[in-house]
User: Fold this.
Amino acid sequence: MSSLDADGPQERRSPWLAVALVTVAIVAWFAFQTFQLVRERSALESLKVAQEPTIAQAQKLRAQLDAISTKTLELAQQGNPGAALIVEQLARRGVTIKPNPSGAEAPASSR
Assistant:
């Protein structure tokens, strides 16, 4: 006889303890990930709120730049050599000027 048979019947361990530990570990991991994602999202939202004044200022500056470039284009079309040179240099650098960027002049011409 072998030594295993002499000690008596072998006890079988239930696999449910291992399954329960794995389940608890997975649930804990998901809870941790959720917490981290919520924290990250709130940090990103606060960054977005902090950038809103800068974005508004950039949009205001862009509108001013569009108005200046439109007036410069109008001057160039009327024959101003300095304005024509500026429009030409901007075109060489890949900057296109829209004649009516906002369509603000369309209602004025229909009167």
Residues 16-101 form one domain.
